[in-house]
Amino acid sequence: xxxxxxxxxxxxxxxxxxxxxxxxxxxxxxxxxxxxxxxxxxxxxxxxxxxxxxxxxxxxxxxxxxxxxxxxxxxxxxxxxxxxxxxxxxxxxxxxxxxxxxxxxxxxxxxxxxxxxxxxxxxxxxxxxxxxxxxxxxxxxxxxxxxxxxxxxxxxxxxxxxxxxxxxxxxxxxxxxxxxxxxxxxxxxxxxxxxxxxxxxxxxxxxxxxxxxxxxxxxxxxxxxxxxxxxxxxxxxxxxxxxxxxxxxxxxxxx
Amino acid sequence: xxxxxxxxxxxxxxxxxxxxxxxxxxxxxxxxxxxxxxxxxxxxxxxxxxxxxxxxxxxxxxxxxxxxxxxxxxxxxxxxxxxxxxxxxxxxxxxxxxxxxxxxxxxxxxxxxxxxxxxxxxxxxxxxxxxxxxxxxxxxxxxxxxxxxxxxxxxxxxxxxxxxxxxxxxxxxxxxxxxxxxxxxxxxxxxxxxxxxxxxxxxxxxxxxxxxxxxxxxxxxxxxxxxxxxxxxxxxxxxxxxxxxxxxxxxxxxxxxxxxxxxxxxxxxxxxxxxxxxxxxxxxxxxxxxxxxxxxxxxxxxxxxxxxxxxxxxxxxxxxxxxxxxxxxxxxxxx
Lengths: 255, 335
What we know:
Strand content of chain B: under 5%
Distance between the termini of chain A: 36 Å
Strand order of the largest sheet of chain A: 1-2
Radius of gyration of chain B: 21 Å
Radius of gyration of chain A: 19 Å
Largest sheet of chain B: 2 strands, antiparallel
Order of helices and strands of chain B: HHHHHHEEHHHHHHHH
Number of strands of chain B: 2
Helix content of chain A: 55-70%
Shape of chain B: globular
Oligomer: heterodimer
Strand order of the largest sheet of chain B: 1-2
């Protein structure tokens, strides 16, 4: 699989077309501020999509990704209640995402179960656990650093006024480069494609490699993504991230 | 050997359901009353209808994620037409729901067979598209109680021969599906197609015809469910039954329908529905927080799919020993 294929070119052309059409039709659309702010709509989803891409190239799927996100957010809330600082809260989210993803991975590889069924099950389980833990309550009052992470621009933090790239979008770019390099320039990445290609002939998953991906997916993807989700609302509800894999964004902060 | 295995698994599931019912009944005798049984049956009826459609699709190694959106769109179409046309009768509305649903299902089937796309991708797409179409049709507005046609509201509240109409609908669909799968050639071909597509092609089974058929039937049953759902809850809106497709797939999996195709029975799937119905009915009775429902459903899916996978492996479905050759090849590579 090449990184720069026909479909990628078509997508880029469509994106440019959209920008041009809307830029002409809607004055003020092509201004730097409007463009920068529009990235708030998709940055978190983009990070989740990167994580899912790693799984999908191997021929697997993770439907539980939004439920894991909710669970990670919950872990952050409990870590805060237990007196952890921003760093501790972040670690709690990383650990929760890692464990939740590893459970998926073990079920798919060790027990050779179809990932779609496993993750339907864990989707229900993880979201259910978040509901059980929290009921109809909400945890709020998070440290300001998360809010900054989700709502501010790089320029504000480093003190350069004109640098209006949102921090969230920067995280997405870094994550995209990391995933891109992993998939196209490392042995691990090429093997992931090989698993996906092999699957078509063999009709069954190859164990060890997939479990690693699932871990990476749960651990890396979700834990990155749950930050920005957080800072948007700066409070957690269990409905957060509900059905994020196929629905629009119900938050409406910047819509 | 194989029928024996599947029968045993279904009895096991039935035994678990009975055990849960008895255990809950011991704590709260109200749970074991006829009235409560009817309530659970009534609540499970729509799920049972959807599960029959989903099972047909799963048997062919496919999946239909668009059922809940189809249900909501058909429900909305019926509600809007009922609102605009007060003279509509029950048979006309039923026919309308069945045909709108079947049409939406046929679109899935057409995309899957014509362009050879994976069912999961196609139905994920139509899941969004149909949901969006509801918004377009209704302008995002709710059709609420007073605007729902009397016939639509009345249908699920009818009682025939002591059983609610919804239960009759479910029983008819279950019976027809069982007859279709057991006695009709098309039904046997669906099993053949899911069990081994290559062999099915060699004996002259047209995969495209059968796929078209199962997606249309799945859509048709989703359409019927849409009419019943809107009537039962007296409301139609854009987010109606959102996410319900996962419950449908879960019921199938709990009932022993293999996601890998070719394995599953009407009885098993019906028991899967009953299991979800009993658990959902039991939790409030024994005063467990309803928040636990989802977590328990998830755990049950994981357990049942693990058990099913074990049973299948023991039955020795794999003829060629992949594992041995693989380890040999591996040793060869390392040596």
